[in-house]
Amino acid sequence: MGYTCLKMATFGGVKYRPGDVVEAEMIQPGSARAMQDMGIIAEFQDLEVGKIETLTLPITAEGGVVELDATPDAVVQAVCILQQRAEEAVTTIAEVEDQSVLILVNACDSRKSVKAAAKERGVFLEDEAAKAVQEAPEGGSEGVS
Question: Alpha-carbon dihedral of residues 13, 18, 21, 25, nearest 10 degrees?
Fold first, then answer.
């Protein structure tokens, strides 16, 4: 069993910051419960990474709050874009293929150039999807005379 550090602390001469994983061996025997009660550590919840397929995120839109289903990879990509300089973000957005990334970036970023790039790319992807549907053969009637 391990613990998650909640406050700056030193265990066994090693400094831990909030969010760090503290191995059980680093905690003095018998003091773990007291440290949990003081809010210094919490029992580590070992999550199985990769098990989450989609996240439902509440996004505030012009008409209220909508729920956006996004994959963890889409969320990571959106967060990376949000951390980039505006010029880099606009360039990255031009290559995005996932609408949920664009919606998330548009909802969370306040920079006009980034919001405009996300909207423009979203419209482009919607147009491409509509063209692909129109060009698809209907009912497999090709080659019938």
Answer: 40
